[in-house]
Structures are given as C-alpha cells and as structure tokens.
Amino acid sequence: xxxxxxxxxxxxxxxxxxxxxxxxxxxxxxxxxxxxxxxxxxxxxxxxxxxxxxxxxxxxxxxxxxxxxxxxxxxxxxxxxxxxxxxxxxxxxxxxxxxxxxxxxxxxxxxxxxxxxxxxxxxxxxxxxxxxxxxxxxxxxxxxxxxxxxxxxxxxxxxxxxxxxxxxxxxxxxxxxxxxxxxxxxxxxxxxxxxxxxxxxxxxxxxxxxxxxxxxxxxxxxxxxxxxxxxxxxxxxxxxxxxxxxxxxxxxxxxxxxxxxxxxxxxxxxxxxxxxxxxxxxx
Amino acid sequence: xxxxxxxxxxxxxxxxxxxxxxxxxxxxxxxxxxxxxxxxxxxxxxxxxxxxxxxxxxxxxxxxxxxxxxxxxxxxxxxxxxxxxxxxxxxxxxxxxxxxxxxxxxxxxxxxxxxxxxxxxxxxxxxxxxxxxxxxxxxxxxxxxxxxxxxxxxxxxx
Lengths: 283, 158
Fold this sequence. Notes:
The complex is a heterodimer of chains A (283) and B (158).
Chain A: E1 7-10, H1 14-23, E2 28-30, H2 36-41, E3 49-52, E4 62-65, E5 68-71, H3 77-82, H4 88-94, H5 100-105, H6 108-114, H7 121-128, E6 131-136, E7 139-144, H8 145-148, E8 149-151, E9 154-155, E10 161-169, E11 175-183, E12 190-201, E13 204-213, E14 220-221, H9 223-229, H10 236-244, H11 262-281
Parallel strand pairs in A: 1-3, 2-3
Antiparallel strand pairs in A: 4-5, 5-10, 6-7, 6-10, 8-9, 11-12, 12-13, 13-14
Chain B: E1 3-9, E2 12-18, H1 24-31, E3 50-53, E4 56-59, E5 72-74, H2 87-94, H3 104-117, H4 123-129, H5 140-153
Parallel strand pairs in B: 1-5
Antiparallel strand pairs in B: 1-2, 3-4, 3-5
C-alpha cells in the first residue's frame, strides 16, 4: 500500500526542526524513513505531518572526541559498518542489520527513536554504555542508553525533542566485544540478541558489560551475567554458568509470536549470551 | 499539499509536483511510466523495487519521492547503454538467471552494486549481499551463477 495523506515540511537545521515540531504537535520526524515509511505503508502509523530532518548535514557523520566517538543520528547503518572509528562491536552489528539496501538508507537515530524491540542498536548501545544527546525546546540534555529505552517502541524522548548525537566510549586495551543474534531469516530482525564487552587481564575477566534484546519489551543490561563473569578466569564452564544467570535479568513479559514462543526465546538467550561472551573474550 | 521535486532518472531530469505521500517507486512507475521497477512487499523486505540513488542500491518502496528531490537515479531501464545490455543483464540472460522474472530488475540492480563495490566478490559474499532480494520461484542457484559470470565480465570475480 502507500501512506495516508500527510503534510510535509523540510527542516534545514535542528532549530528549524524544533520550531516546526512546536507548530505541528502530532508531527513525526523523518530521517531515512526505513522504520517509519514501512509502518505508514501498512497504515499502522498515520501521522498528519512529517518533518523531514534527513538533509540536516550537522546530524550526519562520525567523529572522535577525546575518549569517545560521536555519531550523528542521520549516520546510516552502512556508514557505521564501513567505519574504522566506531567500536568494533558497532561495525559488526551494523553488518548484520537487514540487507545492503536497507543499510544504505536506514539511520541509527531513526532506529533508536523508533525503538523496535527486535532491532539491534538498542542492545548494542546499552552494552557499550552509550549516551544519547538530545535537544528540545527546553534546551539540551543527555540520557544513558539504559534510561533511553523504556519499553515497546517507547523511549524517554519527550514531544518536541530530537536526538542530536550518540556518544559511545572507546574501548581500552585488552577489551573485546561481540554481538550474537538469532535472527528472523527474512527480515534479519533479532529474535534474541546479546552484546558483550569483556575486558581480560592475565586470563581473568576484569570488566564485563552485557546486554540482551529482542526477547523483552526493550533492551536491558544483564547485571547477573556481568557479576558472574567479573573476577573469574573465563573458560567454557564459567561462561556457560554466567550465561545461565541471564534468566534472572529478564524483566517484564517475554515476547511471543506465531514464529517464536516465549519459552524458546528464554532458552535461546542463554545460548546467545554464551556465544557473545565467548567471542568477546576470545574463547 | 503538493511539493515540487526535481529528480534525474536515467540521465533525464524531471520536475514534478507530487503529493508528499507518493512513494519513490510509485513516482517512477506511475508518474514517469518507467514500469521496469517492480513493487513486491512495500515493506522493505523483498527487494523487487531496488534502484540506484546517488550511487547506492536502495529500496524505492520505503523512500518517499520528496526524499529523492535533487538526487540522481538509475532504474533497470537505464542500465543498458547504446543498445548493449549491461554485463549483469547479459549474464542473467546467458545463465537463465530468472524464472518468472518478477524479482529480476531488483536482483540485477542490487547485484550490479554488489559487484561494483567488491569486484572480486565470492559466492558466499553474493549470497550474503542478496539477503534483501527474495525470489519466490527460489531460482537462487542460477541468479548466483549469473552474478558470478557478470563479476568476471565486469573485470573481477573470484
């Protein structure tokens, strides 16, 4: 199908976008459109107004700032996949998003604002401890990824707010990472996704950040897994035991649909946490 | 509401008033009459609507015509030059890279960029790169064979 009727405005800057958002209360922002336009084609979303921010040059690109990397929200998945400046976890995850055509148009900012529980960036950004920088009519603020993602297609973005950048801390020496996902074979969307950032020193795990997504309403940290890994000598047995602890970190309902039951997702998340941690630790 | 856009498609610049909700694939097919680009799922899954926009393979069913304002586009109609099929088109012909043909324009447009961006492309990379293009006849064996042959004809190929 095709979208229902809407009015269209093109913003040339963040301030212009914010003023358009104030004038049009029910407006949706359009970046690459690869989350929004498909749901508009299906008439699951029928916004009366779209504000196209896709041409705001300041919002696109990757730059290194001190010990972190700053990513503009209009940066496409393909740009992240090809970047040598982003953490390896991000380029690895980007290469598994949908397909090349979607990666050429879809943007990281659009993806996280849409907050589909089956998408990859929420899990990856949560594991990386990313910060989402936001501008609004009341000024600017920054939110950690763990607080940004709040539920099914729900974020902490207020009305009249726009993502201006995503800051991701760079890894130090001895830190490895990996994203492992069980994906739907047609769409590439995560049924279960697990991201791990593991720091090793002398065979021991000295730091672990693990997040899971796809199976719950939004991506979440896995503190029980992290605690079970930290301070341990990592091997197949210790990683398997830590991965089993993920069951205690799952909050809220486990998603279930006609393809994949909640029980299957709960069983698989342990497997994929184990795979992500093993690959991150090089074991 | 209508928006005036200017888009260059296959070397010709078109200036048109469009409704904002016009999908790029509908603009190409219905407004301009270039019906070589097909519509399959209209939810970015099947790849039948793949075209080249500003040098990249994209899906025109999830792109609004207004988003393409000012862009350079190539559709399947623009691939042949001077009456000669593009090596990718010729390879699909030679290797029977199609059954019903519905996915073929999208397959050829996606495959052309896969090979241009990776001249030494392997079979595994071809299969991975085609994840966004579905063939409901399941004719993938000859599609992959065609792309391998085209990669060689285009000067690379593993």
